[in-house]
Amino acid sequence: MNIATSPGSVLGFTLDAMNRTPDPRLRSVMASLTRHLHAFVQEVKLTEEEFEQALEFIVAIGHATGETKNEVVLAADILGVSTVVALQNNQDPHGESPAALLGPFWRANAPACALGDNIARSGTPGIPLEVTGTVRDHRGQPVADAMVDVWQASPVGLYENQDPAQEDMNLRGRFRTDAEGRFHFRSVRPAGYPVPTDGPCGVLLRAQQRHPNRPAHLHFMVSKPGHKVLITQVFADDDENLESDPTFGVTRRLIGRFALAPDGRSASMHHDFELEPGEMKFPRPPIP
Length: 288
Ligand SMILES: [Fe+2]
Prior knowledge:
This protein is α/β, with parallel strands linked by helices. It has helices spanning about 10-20, 25-45, 50-65, 70-80, 80-90, 200-205; strands at about 130-135, 145-150, 170-175, 180-190, 195, 215, 215-225, 230-235, 255-260, 265-270, 275.
């Protein structure tokens, strides 16, 4: 009989009830999640009030999600979960990862650009930045006609969808590599920015005395049929928050060299990407 006699007795019944799940992966993932959840609730001796608060947090991150912000993605990011998923699914042969979390601001269908174009379309003031790089495959061969999708915050630390002063799709663009796998484009140096703190994630960060400031970075999504889509970020090497990213996205390999010209009036950044063989599957955009 499935009648609970103690907190610990519920787990067995729950797993039994889920055991008929025909999809074996769904069965094992849900069984493991349930085991961890039950253990967690008992380990911290979760009170009824705390349980209610937890459920309210989940409802609130849903409500705070809309056209310009995805609070659910942000919650996964500030808990470190997004980075764990990115790293464990993208290990290179040296045990390092070229990938980083997608973040909440990627939009599909950024404007198609020609190599050399400037993605600062709103006359965005800031230090001009020249970005260059090469896309190679796992054998080190250049990948021609790869798609390099880039998006970044402005020099005041806002994505265009957060900032009425920027034109739609400002600081976003998609480039195709040339026959030697190279790409280059112009932009302005991004600033670090606080993750949105006006929602439930901000409440949590304040309760934990954590600062919300991400180090300055450029987001990249590199793709080519026959290869796994590489989702990553390249961080400014001189940013004061490099070692305290609230989303834990920085790895040694993703620290870019942002070189300032001797006159201090422009900057350049070079970064190479490596694609692994696999299926070209794009993530669902967190915002439209
Ligand atoms: Fe970002």
